[in-house]
Amino acid sequence: MENKPYKNKCRNRIRELRIARGHNSLRGFAEFINTHLGYEVSASALSQLELHRRENPYWELVDVLSTYFGVTADYLMGKTDYNVRKEEVIKDREDKVTKSPEEELLMQQFYDKMREMYAEKEKAKEERRALKEDN
C-alpha cells in the first residue's frame, strides 16, 4: 500500500483534538459519541480511524467528529492544514463588517457626497458638450 503523508497528521489530529476536549480514553470517547452525538461507534472503530488503518473510513463518523471538533473533514483526516469551516470564516467576516450606527451614518454621508460629486461632474461634462455643439 502506498504511503500517504497525511496519515501521520490524521493520527495526531484526531488524538490531539480528542484529548484537548478532555476525552483521554477511546472507550470513554466512544461512549460520549454514542450518548451525546447520536452516532453508534465502538472504541475499536475510533482507534482504526485515529490510526488511519481503514482505507475507507466511516464518513458519517468523520462528519460527526469534524462537526464536534469544529474543523473540516479534510483537516481532521490530515489532508490540509486549514482547519476552519467555511461557515465560520463567513460569520467571522460578517462580524468584522458590522458597523455602529455612527459608522453607518458616516458611510451614508460619504456615499451621498460621492453621488453628489459624480452628478456635478456629469453635469459639467454635459455643459461642455453642449458648448462644443453650439460652436
From TrEMBL:
- Which UniProt keywords are present, listed alphabetically? Coiled coil
One GO MF term on file is: DNA binding
What domain of life? Bacteria
Coiled-coil positions are: 107-134
Q: What is this protein called?
A: Uncharacterized protein
